[in-house]
Design brief:
elongated; 18% strand; 11 strands; 2 domains; Isopropylmalate Dehydrogenase; alpha/beta
Length: 284
């Protein structure tokens, strides 16, 4: 499987997850590899004059079907996302792009999918529909045929004073009408009602989702980013993430992320890509 990569992702190649294609200024790539003691013999390098061109080249290779996954290396996120979102030359599909964190908590018997904590700042109802469906599709790729989706807000009742509760109610009705498929939805749900059976019972919430959610859909990027980082830094969660909704999965790991986060995020992207090719569910 071809894959856009930087030298930090060499371990993913060694593990058999990917066949890397390194894109960027060749002298810098080779210098970084030498500093890290990595042998690039046999590794394909696509040389570009600078990092902006690297993002554009990666997107072009994906459009041509020459790479199956894109991973951001040592460049800014917008240097990759801007060309990916270009209307005529990018990787847009009928779906809104969104990011999904998959988080493994020490005290949980299942992973939690958190979306969207990285791309959509204040998503509209239509954006949220795509955000939810992208996360459902990822859950399917990881072997969960009917994930439980909690649409989060501050309360579990619908009120015009909180737009997030109205969006949650609308999303649930969209699922009833087949506009969102492959999952059980409920919302609005406060975070405790979504993950704790005891909290849900205390509020008298009877639901297939309440207290047992697999996917947590946040109302905006700020709340999602805070939630993901709180679970990471205070609850000891281990996280991986991937951007979905483009023609190919995009891995947007931080430049500060370690080898483990990169390898697991790569594995997520590989599994999702294999699932879409196998089931022919890719959205164009």
């Amino acid at each position: 499987m071809l894959f856009r990569s930087q030298h930090r992702h060499r371990q993913a190649a060694s593990a058999g997850l990917i066949v890397p294609v390194l894109i960027g200024p060749e002298t810098r790539i080779r210098s970084a590899a030498a500093d890290a003691g990595i042998d690039l013999t046999g590794v394909e390098i696509v040389s570009t004059p600078h990092s902006h061109a690297a993002g554009e080249e990666a997107v072009a290779l994906a459009r041509q079907g020459k790479v199956d996954i894109i991973m951001k290396g040592a460049l800014h996120t917008d240097e990759l996302l801007v060309p990916a979102l270009a209307r005529e030359t990018g990787l847009r599909t009928a779906r809104r792009l969104s990011h999904v964190f998959v988080m493994d908590l020490p005290k949980s018997d299942r992973p939690y999918f958190i979306t969207d904590a990285a791309i959509n700042i204040t998503p509209s109802l239509e954006d949220l529909r795509d955000i939810v469906q992208n996360a459902i599709d990822l859950a399917h790729a990881l072997g969960n045929p009917r994930p439980r989706v909690a649409i989060l807000s501050a309360v579990e009742t619908v009120t015009s004073k909180l737009q997030s509760t109205l969006n949650a109610a609308a999303l649930c009705k969209m699922a009833d009408r087949g506009q969102i498929t492959g999952a059980a939805l409920d919302g609005p749900l406060a975070f405790d009602n979504a993950v704790s059976p005891e909290a849900a019972a205390a509020k008298g919430i009877v639901s297939e989702v309440a207290g047992r959610a697999d996917i947590l859909v946040v109302p905006d990027l700020v709340s999602g980013n805070m939630l993901a980082k709180e679970l990471d830094y205070l609850a000891g969660a281990e996280a991986a993430g991937v951007v979905l909704g483009a023609r190919v999965p995009i891995v947007l790991t931080s430049r500060a992320d370690g080898v483990f986060e990169r390898k697991v995020s790569t594995a997520l992207a590989v599994l999702f890509r294999a699932h879409t090719l196998r089931t022919k569910t890719a959205v164009i």
